Here is the input.
Amino acid sequence: MWNPANYVDADEPHRPVDSISEDEYFDVRRTAGSLIIAEFGCGAFHRLVVTGPARGQVWFDDRASDGGLSPQTDFRTWYEGWLEDQPASLRRISRGARR
Here is the structure.
């Protein structure tokens, strides 16, 4: 999980001196080697890590709500759960494509 304790939104009136900037918090280095695979809403995304030691793992990017980045599960487990949350018509189409 990554969410620095000293991050305070730039709109906060009493920002600590040692806090990281919004530019640093949203720097593309934080998500390099990942692809957005689903939008959660409110600026949050599910990301699939495609390089490095966490390759194949899905992470939740909730930085838009100051929630940082957090690991979820492997892609297959995430995808099967995501399918179960979809309407029955989409589940039939997706399962047919896997055969």
Observations:
- The beta strands are 34-41, 44-49, 57-61, 69-74.
- The helical segments are 22-25, 75-84, 88-98.
- Residues 22-74 form one domain.
- The mean pLDDT is 84.
